[in-house]
Design brief:
With 325 residues, the chain is of the alpha+beta class. It has ten helices and seven strands. The structure holds a DNA duplex (21 and 21 nucleotides).
Length: 325
DNA sequence: AAATAGTACAACCGCACTCCG
DNA sequence: TCGGAGTGCGGTTGTACTATT
């Protein structure tokens, strides 16, 4: 049994929007605001599907959209973000104020792909097209590798089984037991050092060997939480806003030392689950996050005034409507 | 000038996720 | 806890426009 269609297809217009339809939609949203897209068409007197209205508004009619050509800076930012996030267009769009996911996706497919190919770079992997082997220090499952399962349970009673989904994990090839976790909210990399004997069972959905700009924390003490300051400036070489955490190898009760300021104590605080640890780390990351557009100077560079991104508590730019404000 | 090929992008489709009763 | 409604997302398609022959 399939789900019901989103609208009565029989009595809806399809295809390009007319000026009148646009105006009706704009007028309606100006008065009533966004929301309840299913009932909106009828209320606004539009013979359109609610989804169609939503798409038209979000991708074309919103007043805060930045129309026009992409700048060189935007190009480079999209490339960097794509290398980190893959085809997560909405996330990429969240970092480009005034641009929509659809617009970026189209632009990627029509311009940037070709641009990268002409530079000799594979648009999907962001590796040189003619590269056969790699000598870089980090092996990455895929630019946005998805790990289906992370399991500490077999040899370790203090850490739970970890049904970790959709983490961007990169295995550090130099330190066999370190994984880098790409935090998509603020582009930081979290190095997770796991006990050698309790090596996590990684089941990558895709096995794509490629390189990355991910950083390692091999020389840092394993139990130390090191939160490096973000780079003030968008670096041409890489988006390296590093936050590192190393998990101490499993210890017996007798050897366990508690300290309020150590990573170990943090671990103990979150013994209810590794997911909680990620939640804690992520929260810290987000709390510290300064949006990229501010770093880049796209938005207000005035230090006393946060841009819309930074005003948004989750660190991600989302659509904002100045209509009724 | 007409036909054809290539390009750009708006719009659609279907799936997945979240929310709420 | 479950199921349906609403919404968001990524991939794909359709079509208008431009360049080339």
């Amino acid at each position: 049994m399939g789900r019901s269609p989103c609208c009565e297809k029989a009595h809806t217009n399809k295809g390009a929007w007319t000026k009148e339809e646009d105006q009706r939609l704009i007028d309606y949203i100006r008065v009533h605001g966004e929301g309840c897209w299913r009932s909106l068409p009828k209320a606004a007197g539009l013979l359109r599907c609610g989804k169609s209205c939503r798409l038209r508004w979000i991708n074309y009619l919103r007043p805060d959209l930045k129309r026009g050509n992409f700048t060189e800076e935007e190009d480079e930012l999209i490339i960097k973000l794509h290398s980190l996030l893959g085809n997560k267009w909405s996330l990429i769009a969240g970092r480009l104020p005034g641009r929509t996911d659809n617009e970026i996706k189209n632009y990627w497919n029509t311009h940037i792909k070709r641009k990268l190919v002409s530079r000799g770079i594979d648009p999907q992997t962001h590796r040189p097209l003619n590269e056969i082997t790699t000598t870089t220090t980090t092996t990455v499952l895929t630019p946005a590798a998805t790990i289906s399962h992370l399991d500490f349970s077999s040899n370790n009673s203090s850490l739970p089984s970890l049904p970790v989904s959709k983490l961007n994990l990169m295995k550090n090839s130099q330190t066999n037991n370190t994984y880098n976790y790409n935090n998509i909210n603020n582009f930081s990399t979290t190095a997770i050092t796991v006990p050698t004997l309790n090596y996590p069972k990684i089941e990558p959905l895709e096995d794509v060997n490629c390189t990355s700009s991910g950083t390692t924390t091999e020389e840092e003490p394993p139990q130390q939480i090191v939160q490096q300051q973000k780079q003030d400036k968008f670096d041409e070489s890489e988006l390296n806003l590093e936050l590192s955490i190393g998990l101490r190898p499993v210890q017996t009760e007798s050897t366990r030392v508690s300290s309020a300021n150590t990573a170990e104590s943090k671990l103990q605080q979150v013994h209810g689950g590794f997911n909680q640890l990620f939640g804690t780390v992520q929260s810290a990351m987000v709390a510290q996050a300064v949006c990229l557009c501010c770093q880049l100077g796209y938005q207000s560079s005035n230090s006393t005034e946060l841009c819309m991104n930074c005003k948004n508590s989750n660190g991600l730019y989302r659509y904002y409507r100045p209509l009724n404000s």
